[in-house]
Specification:
Elements: E1 6-9, H1 15-28, H2 39-47, E2 54-60, E3 63-75, E4 79-89, H3 98-112, E5 117-120, H4 127-135, H5 151-156
Parallel strand pairs: 4-5
Antiparallel strand pairs: 1-2, 2-3, 3-4
Length: 164
């Protein structure tokens, strides 16, 4: 293994390994069954006619050891923002400064695109990640709760005035 992985923008050919890194993260976060994303979905959403996400990777000896996946969002209060969906470093490569390299790349992307804010989530029990973000000067919010409708809930949702 090379001592210094290469940071670069992700490419379509990276997607099989990217999906494997996402699965590794889901296992670490104790929810491996929650990943329902597919390569076809990622190809369409990242490299189709209207890409909605981008990513950076750290490549070491033709393998990916890290991933930072992000997308542009909009805050009615702040304007354009970048949302960091996932920051993953393989277990074997952790504590080598790779998370910082990936985070730096996302901050640079936020600045480059004129984002007014960079946001992400971290599980409340993931103390190493919380400490990492706090060390970088981030605020970890406790006030906001996350809302979500999954695929089943979206399908079952009844619109106001619906007769169904």
């Amino acid at each position: 293994m090379t001592l210094s992985p290469t940071l670069r923008r992700g490419r379509e050919a990276d997607l099989p390994r990217v999906l494997a890194l996402i699965q590794e993260l889901a296992e670490y976060e104790r929810a491996p069954e929650a990943v329902t994303n597919t390569l076809a979905m990622m190809r369409h959403d990242g490299f189709g006619p209207e890409p909605i996400f981008g990513f950076f990777v750290l490549e070491n000896d033709a393998d990916l050891v890290g991933l930072a996946l992000f997308y542009t969002a909009y805050s009615t209060w702040k304007g354009r923002m970048l949302y960091l969906e996932d920051l993953v470093v393989t277990e074997a490569a952790r504590r080598g400064g790779y998370g910082r390299q990936l985070f730096d790349a996302v901050v640079a992307e936020a600045r480059r695109t004129g984002a007014q804010r960079l946001k992400w989530q971290v599980l409340n029990w993931n103390e190493p990640a919380i400490a990492f973000y706090q060390k970088l000067g981030a605020t970890i919010e406790a006030e906001w709760l996350n809302g979500a409708l999954g695929a089943e809930e979206l399908s079952a949702y009844r619109f106001a005035g619906s007769k169904e």
